[in-house]
Amino acid sequence: MTIPALHFQPWGETLQEQLDAARRAEAAGAAVVWAPELHRSAPVTAAALAARTATIGVGTGIALAFARSPFLTALSALDLDELSGGRLRLGLGTGVQRLNEDWHGVTWSRPVTRLRETVTAIRLVIAGAHTGEPIDFEGSAVRLRVRGYRRPYPPVRPAIPVYLAGVGPAMTALAGEIGDGWISHELCSPSYLASHVLPRLGAKEGFEVVVSACCAIDADPAQARAAAAGVVGFYASVRTYADLFAFHDLADEQQRVIEAFRGGLPADGLAGAVAPAMVDRLTLAGTPDQVAARIAEYGGLAGAIKLSPPTHGLPPSRIRALQQQILRLIEELSR
Fold it and tell me: What pTM was computed for the model?
């Protein structure tokens, strides 16, 4: 069985539990652990993950690119790379307009152009902050003019790999053009990856395609589907993903979820409105053997698959049990 590299996004009701899960993933054979940014700060979590692990790669998956200045993001990346001994993958994404404007007070305009210029500025700082030479960049959305500054610590390496999250065609194409890797959202089937994503990414040497996957493993396939349904319901309630559901012949099923959402169900409570076909086509849900077979379907398409347990609408005890099943499968597949 040919499978992609196995990455893992650890969950924890506390940060300590999240770190313990990352250590277990390292011991099981996972290649990278990723720190998301929503309920916690991705750089802070990544720093803790780097300090508590020894060999596994550590990524921010994903850090918001516009909520921090490119200079601060670059310094954080340099610190994290030093702390991890050169194991960092800097994962960046734009987030959506409402999040940037209402949560972070950041002006939203031309996100593709701004992300391109943000990555350029970050790379300039990473490459030159220790030299004392001026650092200049003048874009249409990002400006950087650094004088009289030298970071008095040598970098671990001259460049840090930058992975970009992208959903739409323009952002996905940008990732393929300027990134060292691409990270998907949690619903990305092999067929969608092959037909809609890979042609836009291109075939740049050394570029890593990382598929994020909602993974629910249970001896009872019906229980696995029920656990994963909440994640599918969350995405289905958002019109942005209409093309994804339509591609999988799930437009009518998505509409029923949207109607349930408009009828008063919360975004975390839509599992009951999700048809089984939606879960089967868009998540890795089933017995250990079924999920292993689904992972193998990404062989030759993705360089890595980032597994994470479903969380939407589930109590901590259930999430914890699902995470343990993922760790067992990683260990089994890594032998």
Answer: 0.95
